[in-house]
Design brief:
Length: about 120
């Protein structure tokens, strides 16, 4: 969330979590009013240009597919999908809709972060 806020022309329009309370708590913390427990509802209500998917890996494919079918670009945390076939399917779907897909790489397991955890 902090990295996204460093992009000058980027605005977070909504949060979504199956547990609405979790989305609302994060929304309160970061000043984001639109919170949802259903991805379809969020897409319909806010029409996001890009959706950042940070869920467990086994849900990446279905959520990304839903976003692409709606017309949103996707940024999916690694692993992008669980299987190569799922990844290929999403890439083809994105190409068919003239959308972008990207796999995110967080820094949790870099040598520096592992050393920091060891020191703590």
């Amino acid at each position: 969330m902090q990295a996204t806020r460093r992009i000058s022309d980027c605005r977070i329009v909504a949060l979504c979590d199956r547990e609405l309370l979790m989305a609302k708590q994060l929304g309160e913390r970061f000043g984001i009013a639109e919170c949802f427990s259903d991805l379809g509802d969020m897409l319909q209500a806010t029409s996001p240009n890009i959706v950042h998917i940070t869920t467990p890996p086994q849900s990446h494919f279905s959520l990304a597919k839903q976003c692409l079918e709606f017309g949103s670009h996707i940024y999916v945390e690694k692993p992008f999908t669980v299987t190569a076939d799922e990844a290929e399917s999403l890439i083809h779907l994105a190409e068919a809709h003239d959308l972008k897909v990207a796999a995110g790489h967080n820094l949790q397991f870099t040598l520096e972060m592992l050393e920091m955890r060891r020191l703590l």
